[in-house]
Amino acid sequence: MTDIILCISKKGQKKRCSIVLYSILAFFLIFAFPIFPMVSSAKLVMLFIVFEILYFKNFKERIAMFVYQFKAFLQIYYLLFFYTIVVTVIACAIEMSLVSKVFSSFLLYIISFFFFTEVNKYLDVSKVVVYCFLVQSFIIILAIFSESFFSFTAPLRSAVNDNHELAYGRLRGNAVCGYQFFGIATMFTFIVIYLILHLKDFKYGILLLLPICFASICSGRFSIVGIFIGVGMLIVKNVVNGKFSNVIWVCAIGISLLISAIALLYNNVDNIEDPLMYKVVQHYLIDPIDSVLFQDSFQTSSTDRLLEMYEEDDIKQYFWLGAGRYTNPDGHYFGGVDIGYYRMLGYYGIIGFLLITYTLYYLIYCTRSDLDIYTKHAFFINFLVLNFKGDVQVFNNNIIPIVVAFLFFSSKEKLLFKI
Predict the structure, then answer these.
(1) Could you give the C-alpha distances from 220 to 172, 190, 241, 280, 386, in angstroms and in order?
(2) What are the CA-CA distances from residue 71 to residues 66, 68, 104, 367, 411 (Å)?
(3) Could you give the dihedral angle defined by the CA atoms of residues 349, 350, 355 and 357, in that order, rounded to the nearest 10 degrees?
(4) Which residues pair with 36 in a beta bridge?
(5) Pick from 129, 122, 115, 125: nearest CA to 14
(6) Over the stretch 136-151, which tens digit does the pLDDT of each residue have?
(7) Per the CB 3.0–4.6 Å rule, which of 12, 173, 285, 375 could disulfide with 180?
(8) Is 272:193 a contact under the CB 8 Å cutoff?
(9) What are 196-219's pLDDT values in tens digits?
């Protein structure tokens, strides 16, 4: 009897240790923050997965699981990879940054799937991802309001250039993450969308949403599209399901709270004594509202720069066939623009762009995903909208672990494979 109790106790301790370990490693994989020079936290997770595979000798089984879940996505991605090589070679481009990025993205799909398959044995993967962003949100908020905490966590974030530091101070570029500004903000949009559409799955869903939305908007104003897409799809979901009263309540409560909060802050901004909080409200609320009220247009320095890039003509000549170049010789964006659609069209041309779009469509809608259709629609729309600002499909692969986690591990049942 004693042996049985000890055995159960050891199993319980092992499970608790696994829960803690995989929770920490999930944070490491998602945010890929720097630990040593040239070594990010995500690379440590990749190394962990490699050792785990070597120890259990189950690589073939894991690949079979991956192929089963992703169906023909592998073949489509192979085609995209080789098309990238062909376009680069034809253009006689020396730099191979996009080729290497497409290849590394493919590896990240595999590593993310392998990792979350293990996490799924002990934890609810989708909730782990959301809680990782909750922790990140508190880190961002603490960094904004505490200079000592900001300095303490500085080694664990990607470097921010002097211009950004001068412009934003601690307001942005403060996450413990390898991606800052638009990069981390795009990641938050998927979390906000998922949380809005699955509030009932979380005991304190609304309380979780507040700090996450605040950190998301502080990281990048464009991330507010995630809130709008999430709320919009929630309304569509309720309308389709015949829950019209829910729609009325969501709209009434949401609009009332939004108008009340905006009016309160707008009329009392001069009473805010904290200089950093004043800068947050002025930069993200007062200036855009004033531009609408007094200039008859929504205008910020960011939108001005975005409109300037849309008017650039040099890159447009490559939209049909593609230039096979992703950066200029000086290292800056090819054509001087970082608009997602312009960068994809400028590199690949129209054929490659259609292939990229179909790859994304297949991933979300045609693989053996257990994610509900409304969240899939919201994710796909989010990708389409975000690419008006920056590339979130090709060169930036920070979204991959999040998408893999939500697409294939959202079911409350443990993942089963019929191989």
Answers:
(1) 8, 14, 33, 12, 12
(2) 8, 5, 20, 6, 18
(3) 110
(4) 39
(5) 122
(6) 999 998 988 888 888 8
(7) 173
(8) no
(9) 999 888 888 788 888 898 888 888
